[in-house]
Design a protein that fits this description.
Layout: E1 8-10, E2 17-19, E3 24-29, E4 32-35, E5 46-48, H1 52-59, H2 62-69, E6 83-84
Parallel strand pairs: 4-6
Antiparallel strand pairs: 1-2, 3-4, 3-5
The structure holds zinc ion.
């Protein structure tokens, strides 16, 4: 059996590990946590399962997000983090 090189990412919401391709990527862009599955935003991203509770956990944990992105500009005062989720039907 051929082992494919699948990148595993950890959901910042629930801590579950899953293949990168099955997760949502978010990046900090223009003072929003923006869904960025296409890698539009350079730099670090955070990952979440594709479900509302994990995304919610993400925006409710600005400190966690700031740590994961190494972006100290994200402060707890931004709780909940402003979120931009792309329209899934457009994919
Ligand atoms: Zn999750």
């Amino acid at each position: 059996m051929i082992q494919l090189m699948v990148s595993i990412r950890t959901c910042l919401g629930c801590g579950k590990k899953a293949p990168k391709t099955s997760m949502l990527r978010f990046a900090w862009y223009n003072w929003h946590l923006m869904q960025d599955n296409k890698g539009f935003v350079n730099g670090r991203g955070v990952y979440s399962c594709d479900n509302e509770s994990c995304i919610q956990a993400l925006v409710d944990n600005p400190r966690k997000v700031a740590g994961a992105l190494r972006c100290p500009a994200i402060k707890a005062k931004h709780k909940p983090l402003p979120l931009k989720v792309s329209d899934k039907t457009a994919e």
